[in-house]
Structures are given as structure tokens and as C-alpha cells.
Amino acid sequence: MPGKFIVFEGLDGSGITTQATLLRNYFTSKNKDAVLTKEPTEGLMGGLIKSCLRKEWNTSPLVLQMLFAADRAHHVQSEIEPTLKKGKIVICDRYILSSYAFGSLDVSLPVLKQLNSYFRKPHITILIDTQPKICMERMKKARPHMELFEEEHKLEQIRRNYLSMKNLFPETYIVDGNRAPEEVLGEIIKISGKIN
To answer: Which domains does the chain have, with CATH numbers?
Structure first.
């Protein structure tokens, strides 16, 4: 059987990295072969993107989205597809919907859809919906600097974008991220059971 592809989406500070890690650990505890990955990647393109998000260099919004697409293309080809072919579960921290929700602040959605049109669709997308104010508080506690999109008014718009785009991919589930991590995980485990 081919593997299954689960994607986590949400605002920075929403808890997606925490929940993606907890779900991987849950699968591992059940003797299921699960691999955790994320975007932007740790590769060359991912490094360029991260340095731009940290405001260490500047480029146009379109070029930034092209870098995201290039990073994703390499990620899908070199890691996601080979892992799925081995029958493993791939859990990805951010994917196409992030490009749409964040990128459409400055680049038109049709352009973003074209840039991402050739990539595999997830089996399940889990959108962790956390209030921007809570996200900002979490980020301030977690690290000393704020990145490109990390302003409350931008996060409000990005959240609206996410919610308006929830039907773009099949099997997209919205999970309330304003709760304790173990409560959120319990709901995610039930959702992930739908792919077995």
C-alpha cells in the first residue's frame, strides 16, 4: 500500500509544529512508520527563504513565493514522494495551503495556484485554528525576534485566508488550537484515523 500524506497548517504560534511532532510520536508508539518533515526545508532554498523571513535580506513577494515553490518541488521529489512510495506516513509541517494563505497577502491567488499546481495533494490537511493574539503571545515567549508575517493585523488576515480556503483541498479539517495540547492531539488522532 502507498503511504499517507498528512499536512499541518496554521498561523505561526498556532501549535502546528508541536502537534505534528506529537502525532508522529503517537504513530511511532503504535508501530506505524511515520516521518516528520517541514517547509521551508533545511536545504539551500529553505535557507534563503528563512533568511528573507528573518528580514536579513529583501526581495519581492513574487520572488519569495517562487522560492517557496522551488523549495517545495525539491522537497516533494527528494523526500515526500520516495517516503510515500515506501508505504510510510509522511507528516508535513506546512505545505501548499501556507503558500496560499500567507502569499496571497501580496501575490494574487491564481498566480500562487499556478506555481503550486503540479504538487501532490495531501490525503488529510489539519488546519489548527488559533487566535492571532494567542499566537503572538506564544511567539514572544518562544523566541526573541519576530519574522516577516508576524504582526497581529497580518495574522488576522492570514487566518481569514486560511478559513476561506478550507475547501480547496479534500479532507481538510479545522481543529481549535486555543486548547491544551493534549486536547488538540486527541481530536487530531481521531481525524488521522480516517486514513487507515
So the answer is: 4-195 (3.40.50.300)
